[in-house]
């Protein structure tokens, strides 16, 4: 089959075809030190709508020299920002949050255009992303230190929590709004200044929220967004890792890239927060409420058309309920998924983000078919809908020699296996270098605690397929990363603990 290449075939869309209400937040310049700027080189790159590969906008293609300027700017701004009170930072975040709520519909429209997810999903992401700003505006007031019990008389011992410095935030295309707010709101609450490098596929959401940060009164230099094409990404990533003035780097993306950044950050001993790939097991035990398990499977598997780190990647269903689960799941997939242009009414799911994703998903399914797996629905590219659509797919009969069994699929493909013993399924669920999320469904309370404790993951959904929220600690174990985002722990990556020993106090 001849593959459509977005990059070879993109078309420019007249801005007149974009609803006027999105204009105010649709930006064409990067945001550095409180100013809207071009790249030093004046180069730009196009941002494409994955529904049809039309060009939405061109943005600056910033390189290492632009990042140098921004890092120095953010480092200078830090000298003042670190002295602000927690209340001042809380108020700033609250103003930003209020503006994001007011502009939610515009933000959702931009997100749907550049990412392809349906408007319903974009609205949910904007609400989710905004909730981190609200949460950290509240947490900012609680970045307290500690007073310790001194082991020696005439001494007072204190722990202070102070901002780390400049934070580099490298964010992905699958949640272009929420992955920025989850990192940046925590960093700003702590008193850090930020350099944000959004994915080259989805920089427009980042620029839109920079516009709202400016309107919220953020001082120059504390929130910088630099757009970069794939051509410059690796060099810019290296610069962010190796520049001594950047003190913490937070990245959400693949484990392969996370490992490169981890190595590069060693040179300056940077604080690191890494939210990397997953390979989530989704286990349905005989005792499960099957309707709840099927609804959870729909939400977990097909959120963002399967392009989610916490998406269920390997389904394991116990023998007695296997056939009924498949039947109910297939029926729901058929009835509830409507693929198409996400900006249109009634569409629930959009295309994949780019050709490389589409090719990867297609080749995993083809490999499984060639080795004897059974396709119950889908299993093909839907070029009649557009260049990047893949059919929601359900596969059984998958064996360990098939690539799909061992790979993070990142697409709308559910791989379902049968199991017979609890011990066997836990062994298999943990038989992966990854450990981000895991899900299981059971009405047996002893089993709930046994299995929850045994799964080697950072997050567990029990009788629940959608578990993310601002209050929860998001993060993985093993090769799924380091650190936690959201929750009261989300601040930890952006503060240093300083020990103070005050001696010779006269009593
Ligand atoms: C991700 O897929 O990277 C984030 C998903 C979430 O926050 O729930």
Notes on the structure:
With 507 residues, the chain is an alpha/beta fold. It has two domains: 6-34 and 55-276 and 482-496, Aldehyde Dehydrogenase, Chain A, domain 1 (3-Layer(aba) Sandwich), CATH 3.40.605.10; 280-469, Aldehyde Dehydrogenase, Chain A, domain 2. Helices cover 37% and strands 21% of the residues. The protein is built from 15 helices and 23 strands. Strand 19 (437-441), helix 15 (445-454) and strand 20 form a beta-alpha-beta unit. Helix 2 (64-81) crosses helix 8. Bound molecules: succinic acid. The site of succinic acid has 9 residues, from loops.
The best one-word shape is globular
| Number of E-type strands | 23
Tell me the span between the first and last alpha carbons.
85 Å
CA radius of gyration:
24 Å
Give, in spatial order, the strands making up the sheet with the most strands.
15-16-17-14-13-19-20
CATH topology call of the largest domain: Aldehyde Dehydrogenase, Chain A, domain 1
Question: In CATH terms, what is the architecture of the largest domain?
Answer: 3-Layer(aba) Sandwich
Q: How many domains in all?
A: 2
CATH superfamily of the largest domain: Aldehyde Dehydrogenase, Chain A, domain 1
């Amino acid at each position: 089959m001849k593959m459509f290449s977005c990059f070879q075939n993109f078309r420019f869309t007249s801005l007149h075809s974009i609803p006027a209400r999105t204009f105010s937040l649709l930006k064409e310049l990067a945001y550095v030190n409180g100013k809207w700027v071009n790249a030093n080189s004046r180069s730009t790159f196009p941002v494409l709508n994955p529904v049809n590969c039309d060009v939405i906008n061109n943005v600056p293609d910033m390189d290492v020299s632009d990042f140098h300027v921004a890092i120095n700017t953010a480092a200078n701004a830090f000298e003042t920002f670190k002295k602000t009170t927690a209340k001042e930072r809380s108020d700033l975040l609250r103003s930003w949050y209020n503006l994001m709520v007011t502009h939610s519909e515009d933000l959702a429209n931009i997100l749907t255009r550049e990412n392809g997810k349906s408007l319903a999903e974009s609205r949910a992401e904007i609400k989710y992303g905004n909730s981190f700003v609200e949460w950290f505006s509240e947490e900012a007031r609680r970045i307290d230190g500690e007073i310790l019990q001194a082991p020696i008389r005439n001494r007072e011992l204190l722990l202070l929590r102070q901002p780390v410095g400049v934070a580099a935030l490298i964010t992905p295309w699958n949640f272009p709004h929420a992955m920025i707010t989850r990192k940046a709101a925590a960093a700003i609450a702590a008193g850090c200044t930020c350099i944000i490098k959004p994915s080259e596929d989805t920089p427009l959401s980042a620029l839109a929220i920079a516009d709202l940060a400016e309107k919220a009164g953020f001082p120059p230099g504390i929130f910088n967004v630099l757009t970069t094409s794939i051509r410059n990404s690796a060099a810019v990533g290296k610069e962010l890792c190796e520049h001594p003035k950047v003190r913490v780097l937070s990245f959400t993306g693949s484990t392969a890239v996370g490992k490169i950044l981890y190595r590069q950050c060693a040179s300056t001993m940077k604080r690191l927060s890494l939210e990397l790939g997953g390979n989530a097991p989704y286990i349905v035990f005989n005792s499960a409420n099957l309707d709840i398990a099927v609804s959870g499977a729909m939400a977990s598997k097909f959120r963002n058309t399967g392009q989610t780190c916490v998406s269920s990647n390997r389904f394991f269903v116990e023998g007695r309920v296997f056939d009924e689960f498949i039947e109910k799941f297939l029926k729901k997939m058929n009835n509830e998924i409507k693929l198409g242009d996400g900006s249109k009414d009634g569409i629930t799911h959009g295309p994949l983000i780019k050709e490389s994703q589409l090719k990867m998903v297609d080749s995993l399914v083809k490999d499984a078919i060639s080795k004897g797996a059974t396709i119950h629905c889908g299993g093909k590219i839907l070029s009649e809908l557009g260049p990047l659509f893949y059919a929601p797919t359900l596969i059984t009969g998958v064996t360990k020699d098939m690539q799909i069994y061992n790979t993070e699929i990142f697409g709308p493909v559910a791989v379902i296996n049968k199991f017979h013993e609890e011990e066997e399924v836990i062994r298999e669920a943990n038989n992966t270098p990854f450990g981000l999320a895991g899900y299981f469904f059971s009405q047996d309370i002893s089993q709930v605690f046994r299995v929850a404790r045994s799964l080697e993951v950072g997050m567990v959904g029990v009788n629940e397929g959608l578990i993310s929220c601002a209050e929860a600690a998001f993060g993985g174990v093993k090769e799924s990363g380091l650190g936690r985002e959201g929750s009261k722990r989300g601040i930890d990556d952006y503060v240093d603990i300083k020990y103070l020993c005050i001696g010779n106090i006269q009593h």
